[in-house]
Model the fold of this input.
Amino acid sequence: MIKTTICDLFNIEYPVFQGGMAWLGTAELASAVSEGGGLGFIGAGNAPAEWVRQQIQNTRARTSRPFGVNVMLLSPYAKEVIQVVLEERVPVVATGAGNPGSWVPLFKERGIKVIPVVASVALARRLEKAGVDALVVEGIESGGHVGEITTLALVPQVVDSVGLPIVAAGGIGDGRGMAAALALGAQGVQLGTRFICCAECVAHPHFKEKILNARDRATVVTGHTTGHPVRALENKMTRQFAAMEKAGALVSELEAFGTGKLRLGVIEGDLENGSLMAGQVAGLIKDIKPARDIIREIVAEAEAVIRHLHVLGLSGVRA
Done:
């Protein structure tokens, strides 16, 4: 069985994280992933602090295993959410869409492990100096807020630049992707889109079905002019957003247009007018299974790939 430093650091069975997806990273999903041997995350997104507190308490009622909260630093409630995380002494905190450096000492004082999501070598180096425990290195293939570098190119560059354990994210949806991430130097993987199509995920059934039917070019990235580009399944909403950007809409107008669209799509199931954040790996997903089965199958497939490559290495590879 694949065991890495990530397993020891976070006291988990398998080096598999669940992305902290807004509206979808609820107690139901986070606890199921943790119970399955991975590390589940509550996705705070733009939710108010008391919603996050309730999710933390609900998760604790469902599992005694470690879990985390993903704090989106762009949220207007970020400071209040961080205070809740500190008060509740959540085992792990992940952060996205910003630099959490100023908060790291407070987390460490409470014994909370910190693992920010980064999309560049520069931020990775800065956060290592700030004292974080590990890094999620996420490529542009991921769903939601994205950077500019692919996972394949970014992960080894960060591995070579810092001395922290690395969890690879973006474009990973099966054991082949996990084996590739380990080959790049990562000690674990984070999956978001794959866990949307999980029996315990509260995503609307229509959204899950949309992912199951997705093809390789099903997603698009919009929002470049806002400075915070987002990847989602293409639909009427993304086309309208792109048209507004092309016409020179103000950032305030774009933000107003996007407000409430994520919940509309992923929870309420409006597949045309809602935002359907998902990664490029959507075209790879073909079934809905319990979190425990997803984790075990991914790890087993990764082990099989590694064994196969080992055999090829022993017998020689011919061009």
